[in-house]
Amino acid sequence: MIIPSPFVYWAQTESAVSLKIELKNVDKPDVKVLENNVKFSAQGVGARGESQYEFSLDLFSPVKTGDELATVVKVFDNRVDLVLQKVKPSWWPRLTAQPQKPAWLKINFDLWKAEDGQDSDEEKRDVMKDYPGMYDRLHQMEMGYRRDYKKVYLVVYNLFQFVGYFYILTVIGVRYIKHDYDSIVGTYANVGGAMKFLQLMQYLEVMHPLFGYTRGGILMPFLQVSGRAFVLFAMIEAEPRMQTKPVVFYLFVMWSMIEVVRYPFYISQLYKKDIYILTWLRYTLWIPLYPLGIICEAIVILRNIPYFEETQKFTVPMPNEWNFAFHMPTFLRVYLLFLTFPGMYFVMSHMYKLRTVKLKPKVIIKKSK
Questions:
Q1: What is the mean pLDDT of residues 165-188?
Q2: Which one of the listed residues 22, 205, 259, 297 is annotated catalytic?
Q3: Of 144, 152, 243, 316, which residue is least crowded by CB atoms under 10 Å?
Q4: Out of 167, 290, 307, 335, which one is annotated catalytic?
């Protein structure tokens, strides 16, 4: 009787190899690790139902044995994980000693670490840069073709946003050249629709970390996007008299200048292209533009307080069926005091940390002959 083999998904770092064995309800797996071989046997539920499963693999290079920490075995309800430590830290072109691999052995692409093009406080090593082309070759060997829908989506999204903000800057610039200062009054009427659409699209950037499309948390993008959305929709769109104010012109210029640099930078990171001038602009332009943009936002809110006092828009007076009162002008004063300028410090501190990481000098170690 031929004993079946379970599906095994492998991945590696420079110092270790991990095996994910797809077997459910495994109790006590029998694992034997030799220098160039690993054997596994266990009773469990796999591709052929409940049965005894086993496999034996001759490894590409030696792994450590005889040490409790050399091999880690973790049993979960739906799988068994093995972690083997390499004798010599290096990147293996394949797992097995022979080029032909068994049909049940697959590559665990989920464990490959890759740059996603988004801002992160820490530099994470990208094995694709250390071993260029290897991920593509392994993917092609496994799948027959290279498939990366996530990257395609992120490139299209970033390109779309760049074109949108570049369009806004172009319209503002052309109108200013034609009509000089008189063009400022009609800024919102001409580009307000495009700005609202692009701003709503930016909420996708809050969703990207949730779905694993980018690194980092959702707090910072949520605060930045929501802060802009509040100013754009609740302060400018909701009050027609604010739409013709010069501060809207300057605010749209600040926002657009930031984005026409940010999105091309993200695209360059997705393609693993380090363009120094683009990186420098991304992590330097914020120094004047972020404070100026936040000051413009604060002016918009401040100018709106008397308008909302007059119209009582968004104000909920008592009595009402909810027994709840909300005074919009008071909220705006509190927002200015506790959120705008403390928020500026929070965002500026975050960007400063990014700048120190991204623009730090690269140390080049020269090997002596």
A1: 96
A2: 297
A3: 144
A4: 290
Per-residue pLDDT for 130 more than 50? no
| pLDDT(150) > 60 | yes
Pairing state of beta strands 30-33 and 37-46?
A: antiparallel
Mean pLDDT of 87-111: 85
Contact present, 3 and 12 (Cβ < 8 Å): no
Length of the chain: 369
C-alpha dihedral, 171 to 174 to 175 to 181, nearest 10°: 120
Closest CA to 25 of 54, 50, 55, 6: 50
| pLDDT recorded at residue 213 | 86
Nearest CA to 343 out of 260, 224, 176 is that of 224
The CA distance from 220 to 201, in Å, is 16
Active-site residue 115, yes or no?
no
